[in-house]
Amino acid sequence: MTSRRDFIKKSAFASAFVLGGLPKFGKAKALTYSTNVRKPIVLSTWGHGIPANDAAWKVLSSGGRALDAVEQGVMVTEADPKNTSVGLGGTPDRDGHVTLDASIMDEKGNAGSVAFLEHILHPISVARAVMEKTPHVMLVGEGAYQFALENGFKRSAQEMSPEMKVAWEKWKTENHYQPVIDKNNHDTIGMVAMDANGDVSGSCTTSGLGWKIRGRVGDSPIIGAGMYADNEVGAACATGLGEAVIKICGSHLIVELMRNGKTPQEACEEAVKRIAKKQSNYKTFQVGFLALNKNGDIGAYAIGKGFNYALAVNGENKLFDSDYLVKE
Ligand code: SD4
Question: What's the CATH architecture for 31-324?
Answer without folding.
Answer: 4-Layer Sandwich (3.60)
